[in-house]
Specification:
alpha/beta; D-amino Acid Aminotransferase, Chain A, domain 1; 3 domains; 14 helices; 22% strand; disordered C terminus
Length: 411
């Protein structure tokens, strides 16, 4: 590859580190971070060429000007722009026509974004393409008290997570509720204690432990041709109430029927770019129900880097080489884990999964997103190790598991 390429990553989180690891491993490329502030996870790393801090980057005008200024500092390099959060993605989508003068990028169009990013629209789009979803109701600010016929317990969550950013007492990412009183009290809590005034999603709760959750990663190139799709079973998710939905460990699987549901949906709307789906297996009818789509790489999506088509390879093939490949269904099995394997095994109660984790460990078929052999920073290694073992304490105090399952260890 003759071009001098610089990946420019928007955001300082684990997502950014996963990108940096893969670009270094596959192509020996350093990355640049542009973010509102520093985070130790990436600040301490040796994999980043530079760290551009832009305090007002979330403001529209500042966002565009900051990225044009960054591009002006690298006139002889081909820049690839990679958003890692919903807020950054929404801004890139909004200004993509202008940004394409300076950067190579592949994100959804505004129409595609609107159809999938907002949960209420996502469920309507799923229905149009016969994709299975839970029973769902939408509640808008100013609506009367919720009294629709629904079976308890239910889940309540916001429609637009990018604007649900304020901290307040009682804030949760997902609320687990058992009565109409609890639903209406939670609606009042969100609308009175925060600036969020968007729609709320009220949805049937599908019973099952973390191991009934599943993840799909999808990528379509600039020509809207599907290039990659994966399917993985969750073993454990983050136990903190504000972080539920962040997966700590998964095993990649192969289920073409479910993968093709996602493929049909995305091809049906002509989607382009990365997407990440959250699903749950419903034992009542034997179907996998789609919960939401993240229109970017997810926090745990880097397990795909253990396949024949890693994140960076997909991007280089598409944005630099302009190649369109045959759709690749990931079918190699790998254990992905943010946390130490002994801790993971402590919280897996299903014997078959316990045996599978042991076997994959023996085979060294493990992807550890925070551990990388070419990371040269001792400070980063110490910090990453500290982060891993913090989960011993977090999982022991698991409020989410206590609330739903009744004790710390019920998984």
């Amino acid at each position: 590859m003759e071009q001098n390429i610089l990946p420019v990553i928007l955001g300082p989180t684990e997502h950014a580190y996963s990108y940096a690891v893969d670009f270094d491993k596959q192509f020996g490329m350093e990355c640049l971070i542009v973010a509102q502030d520093y985070l130790k996870m990436t600040k301490y790393s040796s994999l980043f060429k530079r760290y551009e801090v832009c305090p007002n980057i979330y403001e529209d005008e500042s966002f565009l000007n900051s990225l044009i200024e960054v591009a002006s500092k690298h006139p002889k390099q081909t820049l690839i722009l990679l958003p890692t959060s919903d807020k950054y993605l929404s801004l890139v989508v909004k200004y993509q026509d202008e940004l394409k003068k300076y950067y190579k990028l592949n994100v959804p169009t505004t129409d595609q974004f609107n159809k999938l990013f907002y949960k209420r629209n996502f469920y309507e789009t799923c229905k149009a393409f016969n994709v299975d979803i839970p029973e769902t109701y939408v509640h808008h600010f100013g609506d009367p008290s919720f009294n629709e016929s629904i079976q308890f317990p239910v889940i309540l969550k916001v429609d637009d997570s990018s604007t649900y950013t304020e901290s307040f007492e009682g804030k949760q990412k997902i609320y687990y509720l058992n009565s109409y009183d609890e639903i209406n009290e939670t609606i009042q809590l969100i609308y009175t204690q925060s600036n969020y005034k968007g729609a709320l999603i009220i949805q049937e709760y599908i019973e099952g432990s973390d191991t009934t959750l599943y993840d799909i990663v999808y990528y379509a190139n600039q020509s809207k041709k599907a290039q990659f799709i994966s399917f993985a079973q969750v073993l454990l998710q983050d136990p903190e109430l504000i972080s539920v939905g962040n997966y700590l460990a998964m095993i990649s699987r192969y289920n073409k029927t479910v993968m093709d549901q996602a493929k049909s949906l995305m091809e049906g709307i002509g989607y382009q770019g990365f997407a990440n789906f959250d699903l749950k297996y419903d034992k009542k009818d034997g179907k996998y129900k789609f919960f939401e789509a993240n229109l970017r790489i997810g926090r745990g999506s880097s397990y795909i880097n253990s396949s024949k088509r890693s994140m960076s390879q997909l991007l280089i093939d598409d944005l630099i080489e302009e190649k369109s490949n045959k759709l690749y269904y990931m079918n190699n099995k790998v254990l992905f884990s943010f946390i130490p394997i002994p801790l993971l095994k402590k919280y897996i109660n299903e014997n078959s999964l316990h045996l599978e984790v042991n076997e994959l460990s023996k085979q060294k078929a493990i992807y550890r997103p925070l551990k990388y052999y070419n990371e040269k920073s001792l400070k980063h290694k110490v910090y990453s190790t500290y982060r891993l073992y913090v989960y011993y304490k977090k999982l022991k105090k698991s409020a989410w598991q206590k609330e739903i399952y009744g004790n710390d260890d019920a998984m």
